[in-house]
Amino acid sequence: MPVYNAPTKDMQYLLHDVLNISASDIPGYSDLDQEFTGAILEEAGKLTSSVIAPLNVVGDTQGCRLENGVVHTPDGFKDAFEQVKAGGWPGLDMPEEFGGQNMPVLLGTAVGEIFSAANQAFTMYQGLTHGAASAILAHGTDQQKATYLPNMVSCAWTGTMNLTEPHCGTDLGLMRTKAEPQEDGSYKVTGQKIFISAGDHDMAENIIHLVLAKIPGGPEGIKGVSLFIVPKINVNDDGSLGARNGVSVGNIERKMGIHGNSTCVMNYDGATGYLLGDEHKGMRAMFTMMNEARLGVGMQGLAQAEAAYQNAVVYAKDRLQGRDVTGAKNPDGPADPLIVHPDIRRALMDQKSFIEGGRAFLLWGAQMIDASHRNDDQDADGLISLMTPVIKGFLTDEGYQSTVQAQQIYGGHGYIEEHGMSQFTRDARITMIYEGANGVQALDLVGRKLAQDGGKHVMAFFDLVKSFCKENAENEDLKDFVAPLKSASKDLQAAGMYFMQNGMKNPNHALAGSYDFMHLFGHVCLGLMWAKMAKSSMLALKNGASDAAFHETKLTTARYYMARRLPATAMHLSRIESGADTVMTLDAEAF
């Protein structure tokens, strides 16, 4: 059975050495000293390793089942969920007035990675609830907040988001689900939604569905979409549970991965719903949830890569295959361990350098969210808006590829279910698709985010990179990091300039290069993170760090990323500058 151990040491390093959170002016950060964050992360690690990770294979093999209209989760899920609720984990970064602990999103993100790496399918039940609760918190009335949030923050009730319909995925303006106004101010919601993660289960008293629907007579297309709170079980005025609402499960989807999560077809038959936010402004309210979810999905991609990598390292050290070409390293055995071979090292270093750089990128993004929410920092808000499609798209694409590399290290055994490596690959695959497929993330980045506020935020990112390079230009120790970062940043700027010069004449020139641009941007972001980590570890070594080996390893990994991964920016730029002609010329009939 696969193993998983929370990377708490690396997280502590990022929080305190690299991000230096205790010195931040963000409210609440001054309380996050090393002892406190260490205690939180260690407890999360204990719970996940002892209770949640062992259920990962159980969920994968058993899946969920629908019997007589009731969805049953895999063995052990319900008891584990009770332990998660008892520990207050679902409300870690939610407001105290609704039963949360009001911790920063930064800490919630670190803990979220631990939970998702241990068991992605299980953790989605609380993760989706968190997103639904955030939407109600941002757009709900005082009464709606009082009615739903205390139970959702505790996960006594869970939540979902209902967007997709059988004929309507990304283009939500095509949806047919309708909401008929009633005299009492409620609505009758009728329609069918598909691909609804955690749509129904047996681990909570109630499920609060957030459903996109159209009010008859409203504007056409996406401008006529509204968002509704539709409980599985109606809630009485005194907060007690009433009659069953007109909500039912039509089917559980059979899918490639995340078998332990109930992905449902949901039927709404005149179900009682309540408008969340303003009429015909449903997408604004839903995007509160979706933007949070997109960052969470980026974290899922990273988390699956971490779990797969940990097992690949163990296997590479234990499995004996062939001899080191430079001389036997295990002369008393029949062969040397896999890890002596350069190609195995390459695969492991690809994974390690992505995971550790990606984690820094993710936590840096979470810090921007805290700055935006807690300091009303509009610059941080703009920057994280720009970064959201990069975090989601790049971390999930690269995370999936990392699980494939980890599986490859096992050879044929990686393809056999007994070793559990295929689950990481299968579970990671969905992260590239849901909450907006990665092609859509790339289009959002190039088509909307680059030009947002007159390009202010992408210029701010370029300034961040430029400032780092300028501040450290005379530092000989950092030349291996500053020079590649500077070169990669120039590739990113050149790509942006190409879009400006050619995209207006023919938008396809920009859109055909959007996916490459998303990856180019992601590599530059990780390059910046590795340069920052290199600087932090050099300082730690200079100051006599007690764990010199940890920091030396960081520097070696940083040099690998700069030398072997970051040069990909030149390839992506070359593809972008080739334009749209080779992409768009072929007639549809010729495919």
Word description of this protein:
This protein has helices at residues 8-18, 34-52, 55-62, 77-86, 105-118, 120-139, 142-153, 282-318, 342-375, 378-409, 421-429, 438-449, 456-471, 479-502, 507-511, 514-542, 548-565, 568-577, 581-584, and strands at residues 65-67, 70-72, 157-162, 178-181, 187-197, 206-214, 225-231, 233-235, 241-244, 247-252, 263-275. It is built from 19 helices and eleven strands. Strand 1 and strand 2 form a beta hairpin. By secondary structure, the protein is α+β, with helices and mostly antiparallel strands. The model has no long low-confidence stretch (mean pLDDT 96). Strands 3, 4, 5, 6, 7, 10 and 11 form a seven-stranded mixed β-sheet that branches. A two-stranded antiparallel ribbon has the order 1-2. The longest helix has 37 residues, at 282-318. Helix 16 runs antiparallel to helix 18 (568-577). It is globular, with a radius of gyration of 24 Å.
What is the number of beta strands? 11
Distance between the termini: 44 Å
Provide a count of the helices. 19
Outline, from the CA principal axes?
Answer: globular
Q: N-to-C SSE series?
A: HHHEEHHHHEEEEEEEEEHHHHHHHHHHHH
Q: C-alpha Rg, in Å?
A: 24 Å
Strand content: 5-15%
Supply the helix-strand structural class.
alpha+beta
Low-confidence spans: pLDDT under 50, at least 5 residues? Answer: none
Major beta-sheet overview: 7 strands, mixed
Average pLDDT works out at 96
Can you give the helix content as a percent range? Answer: 40-55%
